[in-house]
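Summary of Year 1 activities. Much of the first year was spent building the evaluation harness for sequence design. The harness presents a backbone, in tokenized form, and records the residue chosen at every position. We chose the following record to illustrate the format because it has been used consistently in internal testing since the harness was completed.
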């Protein structure tokens, strides 16, 4: 049994038979045991990770708990109140007492199925695990996070089926023109995005962005991961402000990350590529991680993420990997929803092609499959039996393609396969009532029928294999 470390972020244990175990998976399992020995509800991400939605002044620690409001009064006293909110402080105190904050129920449910939850994966990563002793014996109220994810504004050229006007100006424009979607509870109703949910225009004064830049000089030295999301970060001036700061203040231990739809104007993409090339030169950062959001392949990917040019996305992925062949990698974020299933194998096949071409001395091509839970009518829970069988077949196809010593960086990671299994378990154990199932089917039809009318799309052209399911949903909607 040999321990290898050819890449810091992809350490593996090679067994005598040539099979590989990822330390990412091993460390997560070990961390879950360690967490439970201290408190069965403890999650280090509640301290060390923060997701900041500065467009509306909301935050959470990871994407599973609901967003909650940041107090502008608290920010006037201390900009770190962007992260250290009363809600998070109360949850940290609960965790140290062994109590289970309800906002974190997603992970408890995953663990009930004997799967490794994101609580363990996140806590097991070095940016969090190194703080374990300080967390269990230290402060719950004055914490500087090491993993920060920021949405500076909602400018976006896409209107993805599961997104909202809160995160996309394209969605906001549509809702202002056509109104809410005719689901049982009107979806993305404009009145919902008023008050504290109303996005602050990128051209207007934003106290949350102001507080962030006040906090930045103190935050930056402690960062291990900094990730910019959106909206579409390539369209946001703050992205390039961060880039300029990093170039002026190199941080060789920083993982700098950007999430993009990779389907923007070519001139803007040229500008972005110029910055990334400069950042990856020298010792400005340890690594640049490019996250690319795509949930399927070809026309089906374009249908789910309206406005996406899938061909342009792939062209830009290849250009990124070819033109800047060092100190970076690409991670595909596949938001697992019901409509991902028909083409996910084709997308994973493309990922294997990319791994074969670009992953030699280290893994440059990654993917993750986080679960979509809202809107409920698009979640895996509503998938018909034919799609459930198909996802099982995808999992079974992946298993013999698991990475070995002989196929290092070319096959699937153990935890990638485990996460597909985890998604299936969540889907199959949801126990929706018949009433909930029929209601969601009705909403599915009402939403996508209106989607087709407004956006000049055609569901059955994109998903011909779902004709029978579509007919069922239409029948439920017309009762």
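For this record, the design step produced the sequence shown next.
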């Amino acid at each position: 049994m040999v321990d290898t470390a050819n890449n810091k972020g992809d350490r593996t244990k090679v067994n005598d038979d040539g099979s590989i175990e990822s330390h990412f998976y091993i460390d997560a399992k070990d961390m879950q045991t360690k967490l439970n020995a201290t408190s069965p509800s403890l999650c280090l991400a509640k301290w060390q990770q923060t997701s900041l939605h500065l467009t509306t002044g909301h935050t959470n620690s990871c994407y599973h708990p609901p967003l909650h409001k940041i107090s502008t009064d608290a920010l006037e006293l201390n900009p770190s109140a962007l992260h250290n909110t009363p809600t998070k402080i109360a949850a940290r105190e609960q965790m140290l007492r062994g109590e289970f904050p309800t906002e974190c129920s997603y992970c408890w449910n995953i663990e009930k199925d004997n799967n490794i939850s994101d609580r363990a994966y996140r806590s097991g990563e070095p940016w969090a695990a190194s703080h374990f002793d300080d967390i269990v014996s230290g402060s719950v109220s004055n914490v500087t996070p090491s993993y920060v994810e920021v949405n500076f504004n909602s400018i976006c050229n896409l209107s993805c089926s599961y997104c909202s006007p809160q995160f996309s100006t394209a969605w906001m424009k549509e809702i202002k023109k056509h109104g809410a979607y005719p689901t049982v509870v009107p979806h993305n109703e404009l009145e919902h995005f008023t008050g504290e949910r109303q996005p602050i225009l990128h051209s207007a004064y934003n106290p949350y962005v102001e507080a962030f830049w006040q906090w930045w000089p103190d935050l930056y030295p402690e960062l291990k991961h900094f990730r910019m999301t959106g909206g579409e970060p390539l369209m946001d001036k703050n992205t390039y402000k961060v880039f300029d700061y990093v170039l002026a203040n190199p941080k060789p231990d920083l993982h700098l990350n950007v999430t993009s739809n990779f389907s923007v104007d070519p001139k803007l993409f040229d500008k972005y590529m110029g910055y990334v090339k400069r950042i990856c030169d020298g010792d400005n950062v340890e690594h640049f991680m490019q996250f690319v959001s795509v949930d399927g392949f070809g026309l089906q990917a374009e249908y789910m993420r309206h406005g996406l040019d899938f061909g342009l996305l792939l062209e830009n992925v290849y250009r990124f990997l070819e033109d800047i062949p060092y100190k970076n990698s690409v991670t595909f974020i596949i938001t697992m929803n019901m409509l991902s299933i028909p083409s996910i194998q084709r997308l994973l096949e493309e990922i294997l092609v990319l791994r074969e071409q670009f992953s030699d001395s280290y893994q440059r091509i990654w993917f993750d499959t986080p679960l979509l839970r809202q809107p409920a009518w698009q979640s895996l829970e509503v998938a018909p039996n034919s799609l459930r069988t198909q996802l099982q077949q995808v999992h079974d196809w992946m298993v013999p393609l698991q990475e070995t010593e002989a196929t290092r960086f070319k096959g699937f990671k153990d935890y990638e396969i485990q996460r597909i299994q985890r998604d299936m378990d969540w889907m199959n154990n949801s126990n929706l009532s018949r009433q909930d199932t029929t209601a969601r089917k009705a909403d599915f039809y009402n939403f996508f029928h209106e989607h087709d009318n407004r956006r000049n799309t055609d569901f059955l052209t994109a998903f011909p294999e779902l004709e029978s399911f579509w007919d069922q949903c239409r029948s439920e909607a017309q009762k």
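The longest helix spans residues 434-455. Quantitative recovery figures across the full test set are reported in Table 2.
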